[in-house]
Amino acid sequence: MFNSLRHRLAVRRVKPGDGRPLKRFRWWQLIGRSLFYLRLPHGDGRQTVYAVDVRQWGNRESGEVEADLYLDGRHHARSKLPAVLPVRGGAVEVRASAFGLKRCHYVTAEGAAYQLVPDPASAEGRRARLDRVHPVLSRWIGSVSAVVLVGALLVLIPQVVQPLTEVPPVAEHIGTFDSPVRLPLWLNITVTVTSVLAAMERALRLRYHWLLDGAAG
Predict the structure, then answer these.
(1) What per-residue string of b and e applies to 56-93 under the rule 16 or more CB within 10 Å gives b?
(2) What is the pTM of this model?
């Protein structure tokens, strides 16, 4: 019921587009822009092409992060994130994390979900090409990213919990916690930066876990 309510509220945020043409993806937009496509075929061989364009640093006018929906190359609709953009046969759901998109899927009226295809020139598209051309290397990189996030979680959380339990009201009720991990500042910074890079790599594949990636953010 809660998810259904959120879905309806997201649909209400959708505003009509202004018909402007979709701009090509440029190499200098690798950081900050995500562009995905959805091609829906017709029975007569034609196809409808939707594009979802997200500028992750926010709209120039409002400063809010929005998803722009294009229909056959023309601006069709827009919405603040998280967005639910109605399309033929269903809707496109778009959600973001601190490191990029965590969802950009076409959800049919029957409930089936399909990830949209990234523009080949985008960072997500380049990561997808690596997965196609070098699948073993791609899996290795993905595994390293997950291991890094798990390791960072195990290292950083105890160090964060200890000072919290030293606050007098907390210490009186539950006692204090003595962290078994104590790293120097430079190593904590290194772990944090590495975990952020790992979360960014996972965002290129639209992978997100509330604890692993959320803790990195």
Answers:
(1) beeeeeeeebbbbbbbeeebbbbbebbbbbebeebbbb
(2) 0.88
